[in-house]
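Hi everyone, sorry if this is the wrong subforum. Our group has a chain we'd like a structural model of before ordering constructs, and none of us has done structure prediction before. Sequence below.
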Amino acid sequence: MMNGTNTAVRTKHCLLVCTACASVWKDGKREGKSGGQQFMEDLSKLAKDWELSDKFDIQEVECMSACSHSCAVSFAAAGKYTYLFGDLPANEPKSVEAVLECAGQYYAKSDGLLPWSERPQALKKGVLAKIPPLGN
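Answer:
Right subforum, don't worry. Here is the predicted structure as tokens:
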């Protein structure tokens, strides 16, 4: 520890998937599988053979508060910009493939910046947030 900060900085990247996205509700309860849950299942299957699977923690998040822009995913890592993307359709393999492609771009950038011109088509729209890295 240095200055009260843990120096063992997390080196893995995070890919977060909202599992509440595209839910169907009846009488205050979720019915069936949400679009976000399907997106997470499809992403997890595809990521098994992904060359960067050991570099990312792929995590479910119950809600990312992007309800009007489902499905939502986020990329985050220490010292990098954090991105929140929305408007990704569930049950579309191209969306899931685009998320992994863009995650690879994010991993390769030291600051995490993802220029519009370099992102896959499915992620050129739907940027809900680009949050700067925390200062030291």
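For your construct planning: The radius of gyration is 15 Å. The first strand starts at residue 13 and ends at 18.
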